[in-house]
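Issue: ligand-bound run for KG4 - logging full I/O for the record.

Environment: standard queue, default settings, no custom constraints.

Inputs:
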Amino acid sequence: MDRKEQDVRILAIESSCDETAAAVVRNGRGVLSNVIASQIALHTQFGGVVPEIASRKHIEKINQVITQALDDAHVTLEEITAIGVTYGPGLIGALLVGVAEAKAIAYAAKKPLVGVHHIEGHISANYIENRDLEPPFICLVVSGGHTHLVVVKDYGVFDMIGRTRDDAAGEAFDKVARAVGLGYPGGPKVDRAAREGNPHAIEFPRAKVEGSPYDFSFSGLKSATLNYINKAKMTGQEIPVADLAASFQNAVVEALVSRAILAAKEYGYDRLAIAGGVASNSALRAGMKRACEEAGIRFYSPSPILCTDNAAMIGAAAYYEYIRGTRHGWDLNAAPNLKLGER
Ligand code: KG4
Ligand code: ZN
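Outputs:
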């Protein structure tokens, strides 16, 4: 391999939800730059992401974010090997902005185009800071829209062994946060409030999916938490926000940790990783670390900033897709319901 071949630099673009992000990643694991323009402040007043507003803001920000990613990495577009972009799943209008931009840049600069699955990106965030981590391993993916237990058989090759039957873990965090008045985005606010609370103060239900030991269900827990809040409101009682946050979070963490550990044991993997926005949750990280230590399993997690949406993770995933020969044409389209492993 000559030097040029050794240095694959991906310019990666991510715009599937409410972050406009671009990064330059070298050989899958070296982050040369990682720029994120967050829209949180914009959506806060509506209590959640407004898709139309998200798309408009992506259009406004994307060029600036990409220019900054190249500048921060001290590379020119000519020195980029390929353009990686999230093309699904996500909000269609939001995805379209990134896909159109990536196609335009790739076409004009005559670079290969590599479309990336957003969840493959989240999983690949683990490669960035864990140089020793290589497939196969088990990964628990917990984001705003997904809760999956995945066997990562090889780079870009997945076997989905468990999923949520109703709400995603992040969705449950967001809904409970809104109901208790903590606002958007819910996950980090519940995480913070829970630090002052007792995780055993309120006994919330733990749901099991009959016959599917690796599947999740959070709607019962969410309803029980919302009922508790409504009852307190109706009887004029003060809501113990910290205890409620800690107890709810504890129930979610228990469900996630127990199934992930069971899957690692049953499938015979001694390495377990977590990924997605909820993977930045402090109780989940601590609980998973402890359970893995007890079970003799090596635990991997990206830094919190690489757990929530970013483009560095897309650059890592795009590198491994590029290496295995994945190329997309100018007909690449946003795929809001893209399945993991689909190309
Ligand atoms: O992966 P992500 O940034 O976007 C999606 O692909 O969905 O995940 C966002 C989700 C939101 O539901 C957010 O509330 C949750 O991740 N989240 C957290 C924390 N930080 C973000 N949930 C619990 N604890 C956190 N610290
Ligand atoms: Zn995400």
